[in-house]
Structure formats: structure tokens, C-alpha cells
Design goal:
292 residues; alpha/beta; TIM Barrel; eight-stranded parallel sheet
């Protein structure tokens, strides 16, 4: 099954286009002990409760940096990497029909990119990966594995994204001679996706006009979108869904992501006693807002 078909199937199975970010912060986790034990205990309880209540997003997105920062490789301590492996095993067990996007934002020249692609797909067993387009096609295309997804940074949700991504360029894309760099990137993404199914885009929800600009360009092109920035970053999932539909974009190919807003909305210690209810309420609310 192609990654595009997998997205459509999992969206239909789950009934929504929510992507649940899995970015644990040790200080915000309940319980005691080391990082691996606390991550295991937290996600095992949360996933079990979700499964028991029939609650499922249509994608999961662990950011690798939140895990490997807890490794101390030169002391032969890999508790962060092992915690990520544990979480991925739990996802296989609890949510076997739901894609996993490894958020690692890789990108390098040719062979190095290929190594990073194997890291994402073979080492970690993810279904998709996030990458940077800055080094061009010989950096991007090594990630284009058959039946895997590649989300290319297009217009990101962080405030500093405008520093480069909104730079005006002079060229011709369709009927426009002057346009921001993120449209030039979208043009390349569409070109690569035409040759390699599964190539998609990261498009932030923090600027709705820019998101609308991009998804109108992607309408009818079978280009997956990963849309961060809702929840704690200020974007609205309801507004995103409306923008996708207004653009006649296939919403089943979108994944609207929230991370800390779903897994630790209290942000830092102390973790409240009703943490599980808080997480479940936020997950259910986002799923309801992203119903298809």
C-alpha cells in the first residue's frame, strides 16, 4: 500500500485527521525514577485508556530529540533511545493500523541523506519522516522510499520561520512572478511528489492565510500535509479544517498535530493528580475538531 493510500485508510479507520505528538519532558511526567521508566509508565497508561475508550488519532509523531537528549552515549547509557523504542513497540501493539511519523528533520547530501532515511525507516521502523529541503533534490530524494512518507519543511509554525521562508523570490510559478520562498518550495514539493508518491509538506497552522495559500496550491495533487501549530502554539484545528475544505484539498491526506497540548498540557512539574483525564479530554476534543 502506498503511503498516500495508508493515510486515506487510517483517516477512515480513525474517523479523524488528528496527529498526536509524543514529546515527553521528564519534569512534566508523573511518577518517579529514570526517563525510560517514567515514559513507559506514562504512555502505557495513556494508550491503554485510549484503547479502552476507542479513542484513536490517525497518526502519531514522536520527535526524536525529546528522547535522545536523555542518552549518555559515552557512558553507555541509551535510556532515551530505548524509551523511544519502547514507545514505538507500544504503538505497534495498541494502534497497529495508525502511521507513525518520525519527526527528525533530517537533510544532508546524497549518501548521508540515505543513511538518515535508513535510520528513520529501518532502524526505527517509522512510516514517515520529516526533512529539510534546503539542500535540494539530491538531499531530498534519497528519502523517497517506496510506500514511505516524506514531509518536507514548507512553511513552519515557529515565529522565526518567516526569516527565510517569507523571503520574496522573482520567478514564475503558475500565474505569479513574485512570491514568497515557501511557494517556491511548494512548487518543488509538487514536482517531486509527481515522481515519488508519499512526498508531502509540513505547513504550520499559526498563519492561516499562508496555510490557505499553500493548500490551494496542493489541491488535487495527492500531497500529504503535516500541520503543526494548533493548541499551545495558537492555531485552531477548526480553522484548519475549514481552510482545507475551502481549498478542495483532500482532508484525509492532512494530519493536524498537537504535542504538549495532548500529552502534558500542565507543561511542567508538578504533574496534576488528574493528568490522565486532562490528556484524554484534550485528545478527544482535538479528534472531535478534526472529524472527517
Amino acid at each position: 500500500m502506498s503511503y498516500v493510500d495508508y493515510l486515506r485508510e487510517s483517516a477512515g479507520f480513525a474517523g479523524n485527521v488528528t496527529c498526536m505528538g509524543l514529546d515527553p519532558v521528564l519534569e512534566a511526567l508523573p511518577g518517579e525514577g529514570g526517563f525510560r521508566d517514567r515514559v513507559n509508565g506514562f504512555f502505557e497508561k495513556l494508550f491503554r485508556r485510549m484503547k479502552m475508550e476507542g479513542v484513536s488519532p490517525s497518526a502519531f509523531k514522536p520527535n526524536i530529540g525529546y528522547y535522545v537528549i536523555n542518552d549518555r552515549a559515552r557512558d553507555e547509557d541509551f535510556s532515551g533511545s530505548l524509551a523511544l523504542s519502547d514507545v514505538l513497540d507500544m504503538l505497534d501493539s495498541f494502534f497497529p493500523s495508525i502511521p507513525v511519523i518520525l519527526d527528525s528533520k533530517r537533510g544532508d547530501i546524497a549518501k548521508s541523506s540515505l543513511n538518515y532515511a535508513h535510520e528513520a525507516f529501518d532502524v526505527w521502523g517509522s512510516d514517515a519522516v520529516t526533512i529539510s529541503p534546503y539542500m535540494g533534490s539530491d538531499s531530498v530524494l534519497p528519502f523517497a522510499f517506496e510506500d514511505k512518507g516524506v514531509y518536507i519543511l514548507n512553511r513552519t509554525s515557529n515565529p522565526g520561520g518567516r526569516d527565510l521562508q517569507n523571503t520574496l523570490t522573482i520567478d514564475k510559478v503558475e500565474d505569479r512572478d513574485v512570491y514568497p520562498l515557501y511557494i517556491a518550495v511548494a512548487h518543488h514539493i509538487a514536482f517531486w511528489a509527481n515522481e515519488h508518491s508519499g512526498i508531502g509538506a509540513v505547513v504550520g497552522a499559526t498563519n492561516m492565510n499562508e496555510l490557505k495559500d499553500i493548500v490551494r496550491y496542493y489541491a488535487h495533487k495527492d500531497i500529504p500535509t503535516l500541520i503543526p501549530g494548533v493548541g499551545s502554539q495558537g492555531g485552531s484545528a477548526t480553522d484548519v479544517m475549514a481552510a482545507l475544505r475551502e481549498a478542495d484539498y483532500d482532508v484525509r491526506l492532512a494530519r493536524i498535530n498537537s504535542s504538549s497540548g495532548l500529552t502534558h498540557p500542565w507543561k511542567k512539574a508538578p504533574c496534576p493528580e488528574d493528568w490522565l483525564e486532562m490528556c484524554m479530554n484534550n485528545i478527544k476534543n482535538l479528534i472531535e475538531e478534526t472529524r472527517i
